[in-house]
Amino acid sequence: MVKRTPLATIDEASLGGEGATAAFDYEDGLGRIHQGFVVRWRGELYAYCNRCPHWSTPLDEHGDELFDHASGVLVCQTHGARFKPDSGECVSGPCMGDSLQKLRVEVAEDGQIEIYRRGLAL
Ligand code: FES
User: Which of 25, 37, 46, 76 has minimal Cβ neighbours within 10 Å of its Cβ?
Assistant: First the structure.
């Protein structure tokens, strides 16, 4: 069996509670470096490329929090697009109907959050 190498790992114990996010960098299949983040939502972990489908800027371009705790959504700080944390779908804003690029999350036995590419997407 071939051992898969995660794109990134994060110590699960370092991630906070509901709505907490943690950033990571990862390399795509062409050697380009991207930013990603993992978010804890309703007891599950989700990971996305940190790039808004509207203008391809990081959601936290202006240094603010990714997650709006009052509304339970991820927010792009550039123009205010709002995304469901469990699917990455934009539910309001200029890219409504588009989605964040989702990454696959696994939690290893040692408590490390492992991030993997989904399918063949870069
Ligand atoms: S760049 Fe994210 S809403 Fe415009």
Answer: 25
Ligand 1 atom closest to the Cα of residue 79 is: 3
Domains of the chain plus CATH, in order, are 8-116 (2.102.10.10)
pLDDT tens sequence across 65-110? 899 999 999 999 999 999 999 999 999 999 999 999 999 999 999 9
Say how many Å lie between the CA of residue 76 and the centre of ligand 1.
6
Joined tokens for residue 60: 């936290």
Global pTM value: 0.92
Q: Which positions ≥6 away from 3 have C-beta within 8 Å?
A: none
